[in-house]
Amino acid sequence: QVQLQESGPGLVKPSQTLSLTCTVSGGSITTNYYYWSWIRQPPGKGLEWMGAIAYSGRTYYRPFLKSRTSISSDTSKNQFTLQLTSVTPEDTAVYYCARASGLAEEYSYWGQGTQVTVSS
User: Fold this and answer.
1) How many CB atoms lie within 10 A of CB 120?
2) Is the peptide bond prior to 34 cis by the omega test (within 30 degrees of 0)?
3) How far apart are CA 101 and CA 2, in angstroms?
4) In the chain, count of helices (H) and strands (E)?
């Protein structure tokens, strides 16, 4: 059974960098042909895909966020991370990591989500 767990600070100050880690158990992040995504849900809004890292290490980003977003992985720890720079209160959301078998495929596994609030 694959499990994903997000971790990181729950409170970030405006203009700082938000960093979250997703720890995966029950399966390797380098297994063909899975894609590991970061998704967020701002209060009162729908889910927003932010980006993904593939089993190969290739990364994909939502164009609107690309200039502020970086996704990387640590295969030795079976983790992948999200960094979002220059955050504003509009980045306040529940952040999820998830796995799919393709960029356009449904997510088969989700983390429980972690609340991140951007506030001074």
Assistant:
1) 9
2) no
3) 13
4) 0, 11
Please, which residues bridge with residue 18 across strands? 84
Greatest extent of the chain over all pairs of C-alpha atoms, in Å = 42
Residue 83 and residue 104: Cα distance in Å, rounded? 23
Geometric angle at alpha carbon 48, from 60 and 14, rounded to 5°: 90
Alpha carbon distance 66, 70 (integer Å):
8
Residue-by-residue pLDDT tens, the chain, 120 positions = 999 999 999 999 999 999 999 999 999 999 999 999 999 999 999 999 999 999 999 999 999 999 999 999 999 999 999 999 999 999 999 999 999 998 888 899 999 999 999 999
Phi and psi at residue 55, in whole multiples of 5°? -55, -30
Give the closest residue to 114 by CA, choosing from 53, 38, 61, 44.
38
85 three-class SS: coil
Radius of gyration of the chain measured on its C-alpha atoms: 13
